[in-house]
From TrEMBL:
The lineage of its organism: Eukaryota, Viridiplantae, Streptophyta, Embryophyta, Tracheophyta. WD repeats lie at residues 49-90. Gene3D superfamilies: YVTN repeat-like/Quinoprotein amine dehydrogenase (2.130.10.10). Keywords: Repeat, WD repeat. Residues 478-498 have a biased composition (Acidic residues). One of its GO terms (cellular component) is cytoplasm. It comes from Cajanus cajan. SMART domains: WD40. It comes from the Eukaryota. Residues 474-498 are annotated as: Disordered. This is WD repeat-containing protein 42A. It holds the Pfam family WD40. The keyword Repeat applies.
Length: 498
């Protein structure tokens, strides 16, 4: 006789009884219910928020979760009542290029918003009592500034990182920025890689003294702000710890596009042309990682035991298991600088967008892929979790924001043929100027394939040809972009690399 499968509803009945009998606190009951896989499988599109006239590069909820702030290539910042779809406020950011991130400062009555953008500027917008908005310039990176991180609970302190490799610290009480350091590559790359172009920064919510940065190499670097001497008397550029999957150490083809800390102090890292990895605190490589550590010659993590979320293989020694991160795979992260995030009241799930225009959701424990949702026609870059409920906001190359709530009557099932093998793009950053081209050309001698045969020169020649073709293609696309500025359906190369 076939037994009826136990669903999340039936699993919740004992918790409900225990809550009524006083054996389970009401808060714990709510958390267990909110983390139910049944709710994840019922996520469905609630509405589209449509007003921006360019790619939406950032979405973020306020602390209460009733307002969503967004920023776009159209240079505007919009505050939404996401439940009704109504716009509460829309204003020009003051930036001269695509807005990459916008966030509310805590305990500011949602009146203080900080932003960073492709023009390198970091700005603050202050919402006045009369409904007006004043924006002011705070500082500037020498290159695009992709991300900012706000110190948990602080209405004044935040950090930014940029493609110039610098990390800046801001205190809104003084209105000034302190450049903490410029992120340097590991020692054996100093002579051909001047800086690490930074894409992501995240602060440990349990210990705000610690923050992580990552970008154009394989390492996530962890820093302790307590080691910084504010009189500038010490070199703060040395990380306290490094994180990297063992098989990627020494792999110069990969970089990192997204970081996130969980409430349990786990570190989530999303690689371009690769997968997503979850690190615990004890998986660090220390302050001086060995770049000569052995790594797999095959970039497919499944070859070394990373098989659909498994964290070990029969041949793996116990010592190695302790430093092997959890893997999440199935999505594709090749075309844009994508974020990654946790989902659920206690970060029970991992979420990411994909080049295929879908949203991927995995169980954090075990790495099982449980949900794939069709979201955009092009690319999904941003996934933001609601601070209190099982609600998601997503955005990407399209000009709208999508709100997802667990309202579907039927539970979703996984589509067939989900997994997509990453396709190597060759270059993580768009080459947009002659200066960019020259910078890449100078790095070619050390990028060549290291073989004892004569194949090294041909590899370098291929890289040189690819650089020139990429530069020409980007120049052509820039001209096309100018002709198509008013065509909202045109997806330019600028969109893909914003």
């Amino acid at each position: 006789m076939n037994k009826r499968p136990i669903t999340a509803v039936y699993k919740a009945l004992p918790d409900l009884c225990n809550r009524e009998l006083g054996h389970l606190p009401a808060r714990n009951f709510a958390l267990r219910l909110a983390a139910s896989e049944d709710l994840v499988l019922r996520l469905d599109l609630l509405r589209k928020l449509q007003k921006h006239r360019g790619c939406v590069n950032t979405v973020s909820f306020n602390a209460d979760g009733d307002i969503l702030v967004s920023g776009s290539d159209d240079l505007r910042v919009i505050l939404w009542d996401w439940e009704t779809g109504r716009i509460k406020l829309s204003f020009h950011s003051g930036h001269a290029n695509n807005v990459f991130q916008a966030k509310f400062m805590p305990h500011s009555d949602d009146r203080s918003i900080v932003t960073c953008a492709a023009d390198g500027q970091v700005r603050q917008a202050q919402i006045l009592e009369n409904g007006g908005v004043e924006t002011k310039f705070l500082a500037k990176h020498q290159g695009r500034a992709h991300k900012l991180a706000i110190e948990p609970g602080s209405p004044h302190i935040f950090y930014t990182c940029g493609e110039d490799g610098s990390v800046q610290h801001f205190d809104l009480r003084t209105g000034s920025a302190t450049e903490l350091f410029t992120c340097q590559p590991i020692k054996d790359r100093w002579n051909y890689m001047p800086v690490i172009h930074l894409n992501a920064i995240a602060i440990d919510p349990r210990n705000p003294n610690l923050f992580a940065v990552a970008g154009s190499d394989e390492y996530t670097r962890l820093y302790d702000i307590r080691k910084y001497k504010w009189d500038g008397s010490t070199d703060f550029g040395q990380p306290t710890d490094y994180f990297c999957p063992p098989h990627l150490i020494g792999d110069e083809r990969v970089g990192i596009t997204g970081l996130a800390f969980s409430e349990q102090r786990e570190l989530l890292v999303s690689y371009n042309d690769e997968f997503i990895y979850l690190f615990t605190q004890d998986m660090g490589l220390g302050p001086n990682p060995d770049p000569g550590s052995p790594k797999s010659m095959n970039s497919d993590a499944s070859e070394i035991g990373f098989n659909h979320g498994s964290v070990s293989s029969p041949s793996t020694m116990d010592a190695d298991e302790k430093i092997t991160p959890q893997i999440f795979k199935g999505h594709r992260n090749c075309e844009t600088v994508k974020g990654v995030n946790f989902f659920g009241p206690k970060c029970e799930y991992v979420v990411s967008g994909s080049d295929c225009g879908r949203i991927f959701i995995w169980k954090k424990k075990g790495g099982q892929l449980i949900r794939v949702m069709e979201a955009d026609k092009h690319v999904v870059n941003c996934i933001e979790s609601h601070p209190h409920t099982m609600v998601l906001a997503s955005s990407g190359i399209e000009h709208d924001i999508k709100i997802w709530t667990p309202k579907a009557l039927e539970k979703a099932t996984l589509p067939k043929n989900i997994e997509q093998k990453p396709k190597a793009r060759g270059w993580m950053y768009r080459i947009a100027s002659p200066e960019d081209l020259m910078l890449q050309l100078f790095s070619l001698p050390r990028r060549r394939v290291r073989t004892e045969s004569g194949g090294g020169n041909s590899a370098t020649d291929r890289d040189l040809l690819q650089l020139i073709l990429t530069f020409n293609a980007n120049s052509d696309s820039s001209n096309d972009d100018e002709e198509n500025d008013n065509d909202e359906d045109t997806i330019s190369q600028d969109d893909l690399f914003s």
